[in-house]
Design goal:
Elements (H helix, E strand, L loop, with lengths): L25 H19 L4 H5 L12 H12 L7 E6 L3 E3 L6 E8 L20 H9 L2 E8 L8 H10 L5 E7 L19 E9 L6 H8 L5 H10 L4 H9 L14 H20 L8 E8 L2 E8 L4 E8 L13 E7 L12 H17 L4 E8 L10 H12 L3 E3 L2 H11 L4 H7 L1 H8 L8
Parallel strand pairs: 4-6, 9-11
Antiparallel strand pairs: 1-5, 2-3, 3-4, 5-6, 7-8, 7-12, 8-11, 9-10
Helix pairs in contact: 1-3, 3-4, 7-9, 8-9, 9-10, 10-11
């Protein structure tokens, strides 16, 4: 007998350590695995290098084979997600796609287990976890999807209404997801959004009783409050950035009929940008830091060096990608690129994407906390150990981690740069040649030098 929704269900743990030998329909697993491996190897290296390597010779330059990591995760999770009925506790989590905008696919992400899955969609809790662990629990999130126009989600019916209800929940919520066919597709990895598992169109969706964060609930019912001030107000009240992004994505913020669905990738950057702009406004009113500071963090083979220069607010982010890394898979030399902005900020979208705004948010948080102003240069060295993208969250949390650590303090820019050179493998001259703000700091002369 099915449990009636609207009542609280005691969460029971479900066995999740099934092996390939526990699968009844082994030919189905084999066929699906072959199909996914073909997709992964083609996307990983279209030249066919994966065929010659077979995950043993590391011909792509990576320190580990990303295809094998995905295969291991696939074999562990496939027995749990091969059915058309998925019954589990959503973190809660939803995904709104961007392909075909303004007609997009939207729906919940549901794992086939009943336990506390709340950390499955809270990147604020992921820092320090190995990439295998993140891939394993994110790959269990089956994506149910329904195609809808972003401006007409009010007319979409109960599935989208329940998806929004799920998205605004403050903790894991029981979900019964009925699909039109078994979920298919390879594990989805992107540097913009967190990974998730296969997908299928939704036939029906049933959501258990949930409790909303009272701050988000208040913003949701305030249909006269514009989206930007709503985002800032929620952040100031301590709502996690991830939860604000989720509410923004499902059209829960903004003025009445102007509300719309926002693709998940866009909502992440929009919230990072909006919050950091609000913080920047405060930063510009504070006194300058009194010395050169350097903050450092290393995670998932990404080395971050954040330089604070005692000067008026300006910001720059530069990334360097080694051959064999996510966005430089077949290159023969390091690729570097970056963006910067002056005191008044920028009016165009940064070419390096959401990472620019995620790092800006993290550094502004510390400056506001300390009530100080500075010129900021964020340098990121992505090394071959970064074998697959896991989302822009790792940039934000890496920089936040750096900001938590005690900074190294220097009297001169030259001393700070010497430390940066010691931490990076790429020669300092290459960083300096790409940096507008470091060059300006080196060459600029101030009146205080002559008094």
């Amino acid at each position: 007998m099915k449990r009636p929704f609207g009542r609280t269900k005691k969460i029971a743990k479900k066995k999740t350590n099934l092996s390939i030998f526990d699968v009844i329909d082994k030919p189905t697993l084999v066929n699906e695995l072959k199909r996914n491996v073909d997709l992964w190897t083609t996307r990983q290296n279209p030249t066919g290098l994966c065929v010659a390597c077979k995950g043993s010779r590391m011909l792509c330059g990576k320190t580990r084979c990303p295809v094998l990591v995905r295969i291991n995760s696939f074999i562990r999770t496939f027995p749990l997600i091969k059915n058309v009925n998925i019954d589990g506790a959503s973190p809660p989590s939803v995904f709104v796609g961007r392909i075909g905008y303004p007609y997009v696919y939207a729906g919940p992400l549901v794992p086939p287990i009943h336990e506390d899955t709340s950390h499955y969609d809270l990147p604020e809790l992921w820092f320090g976890k190995p990439i295998d662990e993140i891939v394993n629990f994110r790959s269990m999130l089956v994506r149910g999807k329904q195609r809808i126009h972003v401006n007409r989600f009010h007319e979409a019916g109960k599935i989208i209404d329940r998806t929004r209800e799920l998205a605004l929940a403050s903790s894991a919520i029981d979900v019964e997801l009925s699909l039109k066919r078994p979920p298919r597709g390879c594990l989805v990895f992107s540097d913009g959004v967190q990974p998730f598992g296969p997908s299928a169109p939704i036939r029906d969706l049933r959501v258990g009783s949930s409790r909303w964060d009272h701050n988000i609930e208040k913003a949701y019912y305030d249909t006269d409050l514009k989206a930007r001030p709503a985002v800032l107000e929620l952040y100031e009240k301590g709502v996690l950035v991830t939860r604000i992004q989720r509410a923004f994505s499902v059209g829960a913020l903004g003025v009445g009929q102007q509300r719309r669905l926002v693709p998940t990738r866009w909502s992440i950057t929009a919230v990072d940008s909006t919050v950091s702009k609000g913080l920047m406004k405060q930063v510009r009113t504070f006194p300058l830091v009194g010395e050169y500071r350097l903050y450092e963090s290393s995670y998932l083979s990404n080395q971050f060096e954040i330089l604070m220069i005692p000067d008026a607010w300006s910001y720059e982010a530069i990334e360097a990608w080694y051959p064999g890394t996510v966005w430089n898979p077949s290159g023969r030399k390091v690729v570097m690129y970056g963006d910067s902005e002056g005191y008044e900020g920028r009016t165009t979208y940064a070419s390096i994407g959401g990472c620019y705004y995620a790092a800006r948010l993290a550094v502004c948080e510390l400056l506001v906390k300390e009530q100080r102003q500075a010129t900021i240069v964020v340098l990121r060295e992505a090394r071959p150990g970064y074998i697959m993208p896991v989302g822009v969250w790792q940039v934000r949390e890496n920089v936040r981690n750096a900001m938590k650590n005690r900074p190294l303090k220097f009297n001169t820019l030259a001393e700070a740069l010497q430390r940066i050179a010691a931490q990076f493998r790429i020669p300092l001259k290459q960083w300096e040649s790409k940096s507008t703000l470091i060059t300006r700091a080196r060459l600029q002369r101030k009146l205080t030098q002559y008094t």
